């Protein structure tokens, strides 16, 4: 059951990333209004769904329950919790408490496509665990053209499983489809480190562009790069 009641000082802290001490300070200064009334009592419990909390004329909010988000990741963003060389993907999402969100199946900085983000750890595990068999489909561009014989050999070997350099077990059977000599679609149920790029490297080729088109039953229809949306309850339940 979702509990919607929360102490006001805790609410302010979670909504603003201020400390509880700092939250109490702005309350004592008369800067916080609850339902159009100035409130200085940090112990007051507010309904995080129905009560209106304002600071400096701006509304504050925190999440009620778990969030399940689909993001169309563009190039140039890292799937990490703290920025290193590039901005992080959560900067593209406008929701409170970004720090509690985690990513299911990271994408490289130069890779685009479907990214599922949530604060529900059990759900994220079900999305990424190979035993749950949620297929992921990638669209890729290759550096070197492959003739029909090379394509046929690659399709056959991928369907049977291949042993990647540094691994001790073959990849799980996957489906490789060639669109033309330099473009292909790969559907797999695993998430090994740099798996798609390494699989193409196995055949002496290099991936120059990579896009994750779908995760399980979820695709990017209607989402431009950088856009996101919440999953429906029906979509969440299918994982």
TrEMBL record:
InterPro entries: PsdUridine_s_RsuA/RluB/E/F_cat, PsdUridine_synth_cat_dom_sf, PsdUridine_synth_RsuA/RluA, PsdUridine_synth_RsuA/RluB/E/F, PsdUridine_synth_RsuA/RluB_CS, RsuA_PseudoU_synthase, S4_RNA-bd, S4_RNA-bd_sf. GO terms for molecular function: 16S rRNA pseudouridine(516) synthase activity; RNA binding. PROSITE patterns: PSI_RSU, S4. SMART domains: S4 (SM00363). Gene3D superfamilies: Alpha-L RNA-binding motif, Pseudouridine synthase I, catalytic domain, N-terminal subdomain, RNA-binding S4 domain. It holds the Pfam family S4. Residues 6-68 form the RNA-binding S4 domain. It catalyses: uridine(516) in 16S rRNA = pseudouridine(516) in 16S rRNA. Its EC number is 5.4.99.-. Keywords: Isomerase, RNA-binding. GO terms for biological process: enzyme-directed rRNA pseudouridine synthesis. Belongs to the pseudouridine synthase RsuA family. Responsible for synthesis of pseudouridine from uracil-516 in 16S ribosomal RNA. This is Pseudouridine synthase.
């Amino acid at each position: 059951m979702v509990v919607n009641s929360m102490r006001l000082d805790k609410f302010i802290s979670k909504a603003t990333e201020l400390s509880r001490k700092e939250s109490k300070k702005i309350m004592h200064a008369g800067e916080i209004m609850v339902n159009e009334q100035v409130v200085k009592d940090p112990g007051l419990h507010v309904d995080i769904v129905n009560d209106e909390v304002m600071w400096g004329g701006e509304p504050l909010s925190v999440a009620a329950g778990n969030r399940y988000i689909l993001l169309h990741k563009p190039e140039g963003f890292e799937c990490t919790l703290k920025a290193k060389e590039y901005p992080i993907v959560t900067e593209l999402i406008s929701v409170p408490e970004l720090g509690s969100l985690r990513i299911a199946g990271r994408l490289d900085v130069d890779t685009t496509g479907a990214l599922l983000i949530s604060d529900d750890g059990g759900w994220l595990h079900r999305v990424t665990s190979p035993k749950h068999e949620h297929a992921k489909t990638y669209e890729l561009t290759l550096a070197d053209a492959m003739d029909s014989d090379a394509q046929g050999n690659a399709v056959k070997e991928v369907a049977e499983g291949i042993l990647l350099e540094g691994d001790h077990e073959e990849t799980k059977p996957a489906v490789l489809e060639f669109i033309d000599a330099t473009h292909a679609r790969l559907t797999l149920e695993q998430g090994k480190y740099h798996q798609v790029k390494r699989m193409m490297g196995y055949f002496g080729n290099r991936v120059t562009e990579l896009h994750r088109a779908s995760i399980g039953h979820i695709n990017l229809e209607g989402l431009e790069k950088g856009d996101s949306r919440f999953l429906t309850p029906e979509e969440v339940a299918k994982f």
